[in-house]
Amino acid sequence: MGTLxxxxxxxxxxxxxxxxxxxxxxTEAVRYALLHTYRERLIAQAKADAARAEADPVDRAExxxxxxxxxxxx
Length: 74
What we know:
This protein is mostly helical and about 70 residues long. About 80% of the residues lie in helices and about 0% in strands. The chain is built from three helices and no strands.
């Protein structure tokens, strides 16, 4: 496990204080913020990938075949 040093400004300090009140410490607040933001990024990327795949007829047919194989679609 590593250590991270970050320079903060007043807006960051305000955010960290608010999150630290909820999550117990400055460390947990920063961990929460990073992981939450990373999760949002992954979800946005997955949605973009899904939209792109649905727009491509070949990918759409392949997705339907996989869903049928998995018993998810008829």
